[in-house]
Design a protein that fits this description.
Its EC number is 3.4.-.-. By secondary structure, this protein is mainly β. β11 and β12 form a beta hairpin. 11% of the residues lie in helices and 35% in strands. The strands form four sheets. Strands 2, 3, 5, 6, 7, 9, 11 and 12 form an eight-stranded antiparallel beta sheet that branches. Strands 1-15-16 form a three-stranded antiparallel beta sheet, with no helix packed on it.
Length: 212
Amino acid sequence: MKNILILLTVLLLPLAVNGQNKPSFSAREVSDVRVATPGLFAKGNHIYLHLDSLKDHEYAFPLPGGKVISAYGTRGGHSGTDIKTCAKDTIRAAFDGVVRMSKPYYAYGNLVVIRHANGLETLYSHNFKNLVKSGDIVKAGQPIALTGRTGRATTEHVHFETRINGEHFNPNLIFNLKERTLRKECIKCTKNGGKIVVKTHTPDSRVAQNKK
């Protein structure tokens, strides 16, 4: 628990800034999608995303009313989930955080990447227009872009990704994408060599209680 609190404190420091000092990132962090988060696994090989402790105002579905048109892992290894409503609809930040990257990026088209205080990063792409820039602090539910078909896309939608330390994983572990609701669970992220394993975690106390 102590290590988790220390880690969260370190990750929260870049967000605790006033209006005159915005968080800054390295040149690579503002130019590349797959970038490790500095210090994320400095205290061990596990971190936990406590979605079960988030209040209603601390999260938002990225495209309210959206329907999944292409799931994670399809089409030979789709790195995210495609969600569609209509052209130029408002895309919203999934959680509080700071914009690490906002720019056109190859097949992604116009792209926004947000780094969150718990180490999670969310990515939103093919945007018609980005409404934020690198260094901007955003709140959950804040408009960050408009849906488009920039980059390699055949229809207006948002390509939504979730990443830990640069590695993508199934966004359906974070959101119930069919119901457009947050999964109020604890997510365990384990660094295993050069890979990150992400799965739902049942705390020991609950396991012990279930065995009674």
